[in-house]
Amino acid sequence: MAFIAMPGGFGTLDELFEAITLIQTRRIKPFPIVLVGSDYWNGLVDWLRGTLLAGGNINEDDLLIFQVMDTADEIVHYIRRAVIV
């Protein structure tokens, strides 16, 4: 199982942060979360680092719950590797 987030709107963000929160709080077992398209997602990731992490609202490890990727090949490789581990 994996969660693949494509560029989207508020519904996408709602589902994305729900999955991240459930993993962060250990309510569910971790699974790969991939944000597709660095051009789209990097602004949000920068904000998470610069605001939430810098403010002490999340830990550095929380940013490892998800990965930003651009190609289908790297996404498939990442998910396959995560399933084996």
Q: What does this protein look like?
A:
- It is built from 3 helices and 3 strands, in the order βαβαβα.
- It is an alpha/beta fold.
- It has a single domain (3-84), classed as Rossmann fold, CATH 3.40.50.450.
- It has a 3-stranded parallel sheet, with helices on both faces.
- Strand 2, helix 2 and strand 3 (66-69) form a beta-alpha-beta unit.
- The radius of gyration is 13 Å and the shape is globular.
- The two termini are 13 Å apart.
- The mean pLDDT is 96.
CATH architecture: 3-Layer(aba) Sandwich
Helix content: 40-55%
CATH structural fold name: Rossmann fold
CATH class: Alpha Beta
**What is the rounded Rg?**
13 Å
Distance between the termini: 13 Å
Beta-strand percentage? Answer: 5-15%
In short:
This protein is an alpha/beta fold and 85 residues long.
Helix and strand layout, with pairings?
Elements: E1 3-5, H1 10-24, E2 33-36, H2 38-53, E3 66-69, H3 72-84
Parallel strand pairs: 1-2, 2-3
List keywords for this structure.
Rossmann fold, alpha/beta, three-stranded parallel beta sheet, single chain, 85 residues
